[in-house]
Request: fold
Amino acid sequence: MQLFPTLGLALALALSHGLAQAQGFDPQLQGRSLAATCANCHGTHGQARGDMKPLAGMPAEKMLAALADFKSGAQPATVMHQIAKGYTEEQLKLVAAYFAAQPARR
Reply:
C-alpha cells in the first residue's frame, strides 16, 4: 500500500524537475528577483525618492564599477560594502542589467 504514495512523490519530483528544465533560466526574472533587495533604499524598480540615488536607467557598466568600489572598500558606505560582498559577480551583472533596463525617472 505504501508504494503508491512513494511512487506519486517520485513522479511529482520528476515532473517538477522536467518543468524547471523546460522553462530554462530567465536572466531578466533572476535580475528582478535579486534587485528586489535594493527597493528598501533605492525604491521599487530603482525609482528612488528623496535624497537616495536612483538606480533605474543607470548604465550597467557604471553600476558594476560602483558596486566593485563598494565591494573593495574604495567607496566609503554605511551598508553598501556589506551588501555588495553578498553577491557573486554574475548576480551583480544580472542586477545591473535589470536596473539599466528600467526607465529613469523624469
